[in-house]
Write a structure and sequence with these properties.
303 residues, alpha/beta, Inosine-uridine Nucleoside N-ribohydrolase, Chain A, four-stranded mixed beta sheet, 12 helices, 39% helix, binds alpha-D-ribofuranose, binds calcium ion
C-alpha cells in the first residue's frame, strides 16, 4: 500500500536526504513539499528544496514556500551545521522551476486530503498556522524534532522545537495522531564514511548524498566526536515507510515556552508519571542497522 505524504522542511542536509529517501521508496508518494525558515532563511531552504527535486529529476513535485520566521520568536538559523547555503558540500543543479503561488496554509490544506501523512522535518511554524485555521487538516503527523534527553541547540532543547516553541505547543495540543522522532533515536543511527563510500559511485543522487554526508559528518565529528552523522529527518520518512524500524511510546509530550534555561524543551513523560494526557508517540528505540541499510539501498537505487 502506498501512503501519500507531504514533507514540510528546512533543507538542510538531512531534510534533503529525507526527500530523496521518499522519492526512492514505493511505500510513499511525495505529493508536495512546503518549506519553512529554520536551518537557513526561507529563501535558501526553498531554493534548496527545488535543487534537490531537480537533482532527482522530480521537478514535477510542487514546492510551496511557507513561514520566513517563527510565530513569535526571532529566527535562529544553523549555518554552523549546514553552511551558508543550507546545503554546503555538493554542487547541486540550479532549479528550473519556481515555488507554486499561494499561501502555505491554503496550499497545505488542499494537499492534505484524508489519508495523507504530514511529515514535518523543521520548526513547526507552518503546521501550527495550518492547524489554527484548519484544526483537522490532517489525521497524522510524523515530526522529526524534540528530544527525551538532552537537546542539541541548548542543553535542554532540540533545534526544531527551540526555533518555534509556540508552534510546537499548538501542534502538540492539537489532538492529532502525532509521532515525535527525536534526537534519542536519530543519534542511535549514525551514517558513517562506509555508508557514504557505498553511495559515492551510485549515480548522481548517491554521489550528492555522499557529499552532503561528508559536510554533515564534519560538524558531528567536531561537536560530538561521532564517527558518523545522524540523518535525523530521513528517520521520520523511514517511519512512514516501515513502522517496525522505530519503537514508540504513547505518552505526554509538553513544550516549555516560558523557561530561561529550558525554553523549547519537549518535556516527554517517558515513565508516565505525570498523569497528563497521552498526546503523542515518542520514539524510544530504533533498529539502526535496518534503517541505515534502507537508506543506503533506496538512495542507491535512485541512479
Ligand atoms: O535537530 C535536528 C533537526 O533540526 C533536523 O531536522 C535538522 O535538519 C534541523 O532542522
Ligand atoms: Ca530539518
Amino acid at each position: 500500500m502506498t501512503t501519500p505524504i507531504v514533507i514540510d522542511c528546512d533543507p538542510g542536509h538531512d531534510d534533503a536526504i529525507a526527500i530523496l529517501l521518499a522519492l526512492a521508496s514505493p511505500e510513499v508518494e511525495l505529493r508536495g513539499i512546503s518549506t519553512v525558515a529554520g536551518n537557513q532563511t526561507l529563501d535558501k531552504t526553498t531554493r534548496n528544496a527545488l535543487k534537490v527535486l531537480e537533482l532527482a529529476d522530480r521537478a514535477d513535485i510542487p514546492v510551496v514556500a511557507g513561514a520566513d520566521a517563527p510565530l513569535k520568536r526571532t529566527l535562529r538559523t544553523a549555518a554552523n551545521v549546514h553552511g551558508e547555503t543550507g546545503l554546503d558540500g555538493p554542487d547541486l543543479p540550479d532549479p528550473t522551476t519556481k515555488p507554486v503561488d499561494g499561501d502555505v496554509v491554503d496550499v497545505l490544506a488542499e494537499w492534505l486530503e484524508p489519508g495523507v501523512v504530514l511529515v514535518p522535518t523543521g520548526p513547526l511554524t507552518n503546521v501550527a498556522r495550518l492547524l489554527r485555521q484548519h484544526p483537522h487538516a490532517t489525521d497524522r503527523i510524523v515530526w522529526m524534532g524534540g528530544a527525551i534527553a538532552e537537546g542539541n541547540v541548548t542543553p535542554a532543547a532540540e533545534f526544531n522545537a527551540y526555533v518555534d516553541p509556540e508552534a510546537a505547543h499548538i501542534v502538540f495540543e492539537s489532538g492529532i495522531d502525532l509521532t515525535m522522532i527525536g534526537l534519542d533515536v536519530t543519534h542511535m543511527a549514525l551514517f558513517d564514511s562506509t555508508h557514504a563510500e557505498r553511495l559515492r559511485g551510485a549515480g548522481k543522487a548517491g554521489k550528492a548524498v555522499a557529499e552532503l554526508a561528508d559536510f554533515f559528518l564534519e560538524f558531528h565529528r567536531q561537536r560530538y566526536r561521532f564517527d558518523g552523522a545522524p540523518i535525523h529527518d530521513a528517520m521520520a520518512v523511514a517511519h512512514v515507510i516501515d513502522p517496525t524500524l522505530v519503537t514508540t511510546l504513547n505518552c505526554n509530550i509538553s513544550i516549555e515556552t516560558t523557561s530561561e534555561l529550558c525554553d523549547g524543551r519537549t518535556v516527554v513523560d517517558r515513565w508516565l508519571v505525570t498523569g497528563r494526557p497521552k498526546n503523542a508517540h515518542a520514539g524510544i528505540d530504533v533498529d539502526a542497522h535496518r534503517f541505515l541499510e534502507l537508506l543506503v539501498e533506496r538512495i542507491g537505487s535512485l541512479g
